[in-house]
Amino acid sequence: MRGQESRSSSSCAACKLLKRRCSPDCIFAPHFPSNDPLKFAIVHKVFGASNVSKILIEVPIELREDAVNTLAFEADARLKDPVYGCFGAVVLLQRKMTELQHDLAIVRSRIAQFAAASSSAAAAAQSFTDFGHSSQSYCQGPLDHEPIGEFSQYL
Ligand SMILES: [Zn+2]
């Protein structure tokens, strides 16, 4: 009796929901642990346990976890959006991507405008600096007076 209890408590989520004994070679057990009953519940509700079992048998063992996660994702999407399912999510993401690409194009255009304005402002500043260098010979007077001002306190 105690052994049966421990065996039933170690049943996978699929076997618990289907109310059957979970065998050591249960195809659901590696992918539907008993601590996550919702995962199998939604997959079973949308695809049916028999179809999920047939799908998993056809999939190589190393890819079964990905297949189960894909089925769970698709089932969840189908329950949330019965008409479009995953396609609804794809369309929504494509629409967002188009909007973001549009925004990105606007931002890149503004960056290019600012870069052009900045380079023209830098060119103007450069020509102003060139003008300052050419007129430096006229401005040496104040530089010559500065040391005098510094020494003027000793006078
Ligand atoms: Zn099982």
Can you describe what's shown?
With 155 residues, the chain is mainly α. Among the domains are: 13-80, no CATH class; 84-123. The chain is 73% helix and 0% strand. The chain contains seven helices and no strands. The longest helix has 49 residues, at 86-134. It is elongated. Zinc ion (ZN) is lined by residues 11-12, 14-15, 22, 26, 28-29.
Can you give me a brief rundown of this structure?
The protein is an all-alpha fold. The protein contains 7 helices and no strands. The N terminus and C terminus are likely disordered.
Q: Could you give a short account of the major beta sheet?
A: none
Shape: elongated
Strand proportion:
under 5%
Query: How many helical stretches?
Result: 7
Q: Over all CA atoms, what is the radius of gyration? A: 37 Å
Helix and strand run: HHHHHHH
Bound small molecules, by name, code or SMILES, are: zinc ion
Q: Which structural class is indicated by helix and strand composition?
A: mainly alpha
Helix content: over 70%
Mean pLDDT: 83
Low-confidence stretches: 1-8, 134-155
What is the number of beta strands? 0
Distance separating the two termini: 113 Å
